Amino acid sequence: MDMTHYMALLAANQPWNLLIFMAVPVILAETVAITELFILLRRQMAGTLRRINRAASIAAGVYFSGVFVYLLFTAVIPLTRDGLWRGPADWIAVGFYLAGVIPLGGLALLDLGLIYRQADAERRMAVHAALVAVFLVVAHVAMVFGMLDPTVLGAPSLAMHAGH
């Protein structure tokens, strides 16, 4: 079975790549998502949960921005330049993974007070919740397509390229 570059990245250099590219961003995002549910349920726009939520949002946005830049220059540009993409599943997995920088970056900007400054707490929380939802969608699309054998969507088998 062939694998996407997404899965190859996570499988290589165990356990470090899995921790760096999956565990840290997911743990931060899940912390944001779980605390967000309690904040919204209780309508508590302040307090310990909100502080944890805010800290995790900022950390996730800053951290993933670094991941995005790193992967752009070490993976996306070289794969594109050298024509090494493994078909649609590969593009979708990597593209959606990297698209996570938009909602995570938005969360950080929102919690740093750099966007929606003039909005009331409830409006900012609505935008916050929407960004969390967008991240969950793009992350899950990346995971699903990342785990897919790229030949299922028409990519040639790597074994064929190796002359086997």
Features:
mainly alpha, elongated, 164 residues, 0% strand
Topology:
Layout: H1 5-11, H2 16-42, H3 48-81, H4 88-99, H5 101-111, H6 121-147, H7 158-161
Helix pairs in contact: 2-3, 2-6, 3-5, 4-6, 5-6
Written account of the structure:
The chain has 164 residues and is mainly alpha-helical. The protein has one domain (5-154). Helix content is 74%, strand content 0%. The chain has helices at residues 5-11, 16-42, 48-81, 88-99, 101-111, 121-147, 158-161. Helix 2 runs antiparallel to helix 6, helix 3 (48-81) packs antiparallel against helix 5 (101-111) and helix 5 (101-111) packs antiparallel against helix 6. The mean pLDDT is 94.
User: Whole-number radius of gyration?
Assistant: 18 Å
**Oligomerization category of the chains in this entry:** single chain
Give the total of beta strands. 0
Segments where pLDDT lies below 50 for 5+ residues?
none
Q: Mean pLDDT, as a whole number?
A: 94
Count of domains? 1
Can you summarize this structure?
The protein is mainly α and 164 residues long.
